[in-house]
Amino acid sequence: MEDYEVTPDEKRKTRGDQIIKTFLSNQSPQRVDIAEVFADQCRENLELSPCKEIFSNCHKVVHDYLSGDPFLDYQNSMFFDRFLQWKMLERQPITKDTFRQYRVLGKGGFGEVCACQVRATGKMYACKKLEKKRIKKRKGESMALNEKQILEKVNSRFVVSLAYAYETKDALCLVLTLMNGGDLKFHTYNMGTPGFERDRVQFYAAQICCGLDHLHRESIPIRGRVGTVGYMAPEVINNEKYSMCPDWWGLGCLIYEMTAGRSPFRARKERVKREEVERRVQEEEEEYSDKFTEDTKAICRALLTKDPRQRLGCRADGAAGVKAHTFFKNINFKRLEAGIVEPPFVPDPRAVYCKDVLDIEQFSTVKGVNLDQTDTDFYSKFATGCVSIPWQNEVGVTAEHDIC
Fold first, then answer.
1. Element (H, E) at 69
2. Pick from 30, 140, 290, 368: most CB atoms within 10 A?
3. Is 149 exposed, middle or buried (0-12, 13-18, 19+ CB in 10 A)?
C-alpha cells in the first residue's frame, strides 16, 4: 500500500490492479481474508478515481484481523520466543568497547565528533562526544539530555537518528547517523563558487521542510533562543513568546544562503558585532542579486517576514502551506518522503567532504570542575544504550547481508 501511495498518478491504476489481483482476488494464494464488500469497494473506486486513499479501509480491516487470533497464535509460537531473544540482545550494555573509533570529523558545542564503527556489525556512525566537565561548567545538563531525548523520539529520514547513547569516564556519547556526504555549510562554501544551482537549493530546502514538519508534529522546535547569530528570528531577538515560527525563518535564511552563497544579514567572513547583526535582522530588508529567480525571491520574502503572524509556515496551513509554494512546484513530496526522488547531486563515496583533521581546532582542557554523585545520577539518565528502531534496522541489514 505504501508503494501504491507513492506511485506516479499515471501509473497508479495499474499498480492498484496488481494489488487487487495479488491480495484481494479469490484465485490468489496470497489472498487476504477480509470481507468481500471492502474488496468490491476498492475495485469500484479504482475504476472511478485511483486516489491515494483507496486501500485505507482495507488497511484498517487487516490490522484489526491480525490483532486477534493471528496475534495470539504468534505469541504461542517459536517466532515470538525468537523476538524476545532479540529484545534481550538489544538491551545489552553499551560501552566504548562496542565501537572502533576513527578520525575526528568536526566539533560540537561540548566536544569532538568522530567517525566510529560497531564491532559486531561493521555499521559506521558519527560519535558526538559531550565532555562531562565542559557540560557542568556551562550548566548544559538539561540541554544535553533534551537533545538526547528528542533524537531518541524522532524517527525520520530527514532528521539525524540516534542509535546509541553511552558514557565513558570523561564524556557522554551520542552515536548518530553518519552523513558521508558532508554538511550543507561545507558544500555551500568549499565546492567551487559559493552557493548552489536552483535545483539543488530546491531539493535540499524540500528535505529540510519535511524534517521541520516531522519535528513540529512532535511539538519540537529547532531554532531556540540560543541560536546561530544571523539565523535567529526577530521574535527570538526581542525575547517574545514563540513556538515553531523561528524554524521557518531559519529555512528562509538557508534558502537565501544556498542561493546567494552568503547569509541574508551578514556577508561571508564579515567581522561584525552580534548587536549589529541583530539590528539588521530587526530593521533591514534582505537584498536579492540576479542569482535569485522570482519564485526563490518570493519564498525567501515569505519566510523572512519579520511579523511571525504573517510568515509562511506560521499560518493555519503550517508546513502544508510551505510545501504548496510555487518554489516547490517540481517536488513530489510524497515520493520525496518515501526516499525515491533522485537527488540532483550524489556525493563521491571515495571523497572526504569535511575539513582536514589538522584544520579542526582542538578543545582546551577544562579546569576547576569536579564531578560528584549528582552528576553520576544525571549520567544514568543519559546512558541508556541502544535505541530500538535504528538498532533493529542495523541488525536486520547485517543479518540479510549474511544470508545473501
1. helix 69-75
2. 140
3. middle
- Backbone CA torsion sign across 198, 204, 210, 213: negative
Alpha helices for 20-55 (secondary structure H): 36-48
In DSSP terms, which residues pair with 174 in a beta bridge? 128, 165
For residue 194, with 0-12 CB atoms within 10 Å meaning exposed, 13-18 middle and 19 or more buried, which class applies? middle
Q: Which cell goes with 48?
A: 472511478
Element (H, E) at 165: strand 162-167
The pLDDT, as a whole number, for residue 225 is: 45
pTM of the model: 0.81
137 is in an annotated binding site: yes
pLDDT for res 223? 66
Could you report how far apart the first and last alpha carbons of the chain are, in Å? 26
C-alpha cell at 181: 556526504
pLDDT of residue 325: 97
Extract the C-alpha cell encoding 133. 566537565
CB atoms within 10 A of CB 183: 12
Q: Taken in order 77, 78, 80, 84, is the CA torsion positive or negative?
A: positive
Provide mean pLDDT across the span 67-83: 93
Q: What is the mean pLDDT of residues 150-164?
A: 92
The whole-number average pLDDT for the span 161-188 is: 91
Residue 344 clears pLDDT 90, i.e. is over it: yes
Residue 396 buriedness (CB in 10 A; 0-12 / 13-18 / 19+): exposed
